[in-house]
Specification:
Arc Repressor Mutant, subunit A, 28% helix, alpha/beta, three-stranded antiparallel beta sheet, 2 domains, binds S-adenosylmethionine, five-stranded mixed beta sheet
Length: 309
């Protein structure tokens, strides 16, 4: 196994008709690489991990909401040394009610799977909270020295990337990130006219190792909002250009002052108004045809604006 894997042929095990199924060849490679005593998969979907483990003679513990096991609310009874986890990619493929019948699970196991199906419609933030909960729960159940391998993908919605690997909690030691090429995705045939669009043709396999039986650490990612007008960093040019871009047209000097006044940058420099006037004069980025009214100069044919020396 190398840090990039690709399985154009799926291999046998699980069901290729169960949407979002993964290649049995990946599970085979992981078993060969880590040589575990046991392998567990608490979201086994169509049964890929179990089928491969059986073929390779490894005891496995395989469950899924479609088999009446809910990772959010049920206890993990085992203490395996290897776990493979392939959670839903947010709400891209809906499982309960689409890949299997809800009524069947209710009548067979007495639980309503739609209530805790991670693929149901929910906010990205709530989905991440549930993913983090499941990650830590599985990590806690892992034997000391064991590995948790998480296969996950990115989601693109309205030109914004929602990246699980960037945002989820990663307890323990990050041992490896493997890029897995994706083949025959539904999105392969989608083209978006006009807008720059890079199709996603890979997934990530994150491999975490549990080095300590009781203690763990992980970094948390979070959103930070800031205002360029408060930064110590950019030049005055970027602040003034930002104000003009935000207005989208012509702006008077007084309006530029108002948009910047009160921000940290003006508190640090008592001559800030003078600095703004100077900035407007220096850069050819800024134009003025009537006294005291400013706009951003349009870009030339080659997309460049002339910047004064
Ligand atoms: C991407 S699929 C796994 C596919 C699997 N690797 C295969 O090859 O078929 C994700 C699975 O997570 C299951 N799931 C969603 N929420 C769950 C929960 N709370 N507890 C257990 N399984 C859940 C879904 O039923 C679905 O089968």
């Amino acid at each position: 196994m190398k840090s990039i894997v690709s399985y154009p042929e799926r291999g046998s095990g699980g069901k290729n008709t169960y949407r979002g199924n993964c290649s049995p060849l990946l599970i085979e490679d992981l078993i060969r690489q880590y040589n575990p005593d046991t392998i567990a998969d608490y979201m086994v979907g169509s049964g890929t991990t179990g089928d491969v483990a059986k073929r390779m003679g490894i005891p496995s513990f395989c469950y899924d909401l479609n088999r009446g096991f809910d990772l959010l609310n049920n206890e993990i009874k085992e203490r395996p040394d290897f776990m493979f986890w392939h959670p839903p990619y947010w709400d891209i493929i809906r499982y309960s009610g689409e890949q299997y019948r809800i009524e069947e699970v209710v009548s067979k196991y007495g639980i309503d799977p739609s209530a805790s199906d991670l693929s149901r419609k929910q906010s990205w933030e709530h989905f991440l909270k549930e993913i983090d909960y499941c990650t830590v729960k599985q990590f806690a159940a892992l034997e000391k020295g064991g590995h948790l391998a998480i296969l996950m993908g990115d989601v693109k919605k309205k030109r914004k990337l929602y990246s699980m690997i960037l945002e989820i909690a990663k307890p323990g030691t990050i041992e490896q990130i493997v890029i897995k090429a994706q083949h025959n995705c539904v999105s392969d045939g989608i083209h978006y006219s006009g807008k720059p669009f890079i199709p996603i043709v890979h997934e990530y396999l994150l491999i975490l190792r549990k080095d300590h039986a009781l203690m763990y650490n992980y970094q948390l990612t979070g959103n930070v909002e800031g205002d360029i007008r408060d930064l110590n960093l950019p030049t005055w040019k970027d602040v003034v250009a930002g104000v003009l871009e935000e207005s989208g047209g012509k702006v008077t000097l007084a309006e530029i002052y108002t948009a910047i006044e009160g921000h940290k940058r003006t508190e640090r420099n008592k001559n800030w108004k003078e600095k703004i006037r100077q900035t407007l004069q220096i850069y050819d980025l800024f134009g003025s045809t009537e006294r005291g009214v400013w706009f951003l100069v349009e870009k030339g044919e080659k997309g460049q604006r002339k910047i004064a020396a």
